[in-house]
């Protein structure tokens, strides 16, 4: 049984786990990272790019897996070094057509900015309110994730064979196979010669369709967090 004496790496989701969505790390959680960092290697496993994650954390020095394992990076002397950077081609016209069909079906035809966000890696985001909606509107749209869970099977069918996650505050992440957070952790273990029992993972999206669910349902030790402001109690047994 894995426990505090076994763990070498503490891995985190970012948005909703260490910070509010797309917001900076607050002072309290930064102090917690500093304390954990004295004892463990710290790792973020995120949906965003490694650089976006690093900037959101004000360039905090840790290992980063971005875009569900399509990117990896580490920090040395205050610089971010990208160690892996995968990309796959995307049929944008097809993706936009699928998104518009879903918008019509689910009453989401009013949106701000773009209907889809295309990342250089080939990962896509389907933001239900559009790319230019305010953070306030995004946070208010589906805080229980219930609406997106009702949509999930139709979004998965529309974007097959991509893997679709309920991600962000009001969006879906549409990810090329075979990338997901569990496979990304497995690759990290192989690269750093770690066993599954040496990593503990902390995430908030462990529910049905969430982007932490595959880690939650894997052999990795998973600590659930439902509010990033409760990080101190969540990690108390690690300190
Ligand atoms: Mg999250």
UniProtKB/TrEMBL annotation:
Active site, per annotation: 13 (nucleophile), 15 (proton donor/acceptor)
Pathway: Nucleotide-sugar biosynthesis; GDP-alpha-D-mannose biosynthesis; alpha-D-mannose 1-phosphate from D-fructose 6-phosphate: step 2/2
Positions that bind alpha-D-mannose 1-phosphate: 171, 173
SUPFAM superfamilies in the record: HAD-like
Record keywords, A-Z: Cytoplasm, Hydrolase, Isomerase, Magnesium, Metal-binding
Localisation: Cytoplasm
Single GO MF annotation: metal ion binding
Native source organism of the sequence: Bianquea renquensis
Name assigned to this protein: phosphomannomutase
BP GO terms, sorted: GDP-mannose biosynthetic process
Cross-referenced InterPro entries: HAD-like_sf (IPR036412), HAD-SF_hydro_IIB (IPR006379), HAD_sf (IPR023214), PMM (IPR005002), PMM_cap (IPR043169)
E.C. number(s) listed in UniProt: 5.4.2.8
């Amino acid at each position: 049984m894995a426990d505090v004496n076994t763990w070498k790496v503490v891995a985190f989701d970012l948005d909703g786990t260490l910070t509010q969505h797309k917001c900076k790390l607050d002072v309290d959680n930064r102090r917690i990272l500093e304390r954990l960092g004295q004892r463990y290697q710290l790792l973020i496993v995120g949906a965003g790019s490694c650089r976006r994650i690093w900037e959101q954390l004000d360039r905090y020095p840790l290992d980063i897996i971005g875009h569900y394992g399509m990117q990896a990076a580490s920090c040395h002397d205050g610089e971010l070094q990208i160690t892996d950077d995968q990309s796959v081609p995307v049929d944008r016209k097809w993706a936009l057509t699928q998104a518009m069909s879903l918008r019509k079906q689910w009453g989401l035809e009013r949106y701000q900015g773009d209907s889809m966000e295309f990342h250089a890696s080939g990962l896509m985001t389907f933001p239900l309110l559009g790319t230019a909606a305010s953070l306030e509107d995004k946070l208010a749209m589906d805080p229980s994730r219930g609406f997106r869970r009702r949509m999930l099977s139709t979004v998965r069918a529309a974007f097959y064979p991509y893997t679709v996650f309920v991600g962000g505050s009001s969006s879906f992440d549409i990810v090329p196979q075979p990338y997901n957070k569990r496979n990304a952790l497995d690759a990290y273990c192989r690269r750093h010669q770690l066993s599954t029992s040496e990593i503990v993972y902390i995430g908030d999206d462990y529910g049905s369709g969430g982007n932490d669910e595959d880690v939650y349902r894997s052999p990795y030790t998973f600590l659930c967090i439902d509010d990033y402001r409760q990080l101190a109690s969540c990690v108390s047994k690690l300190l």
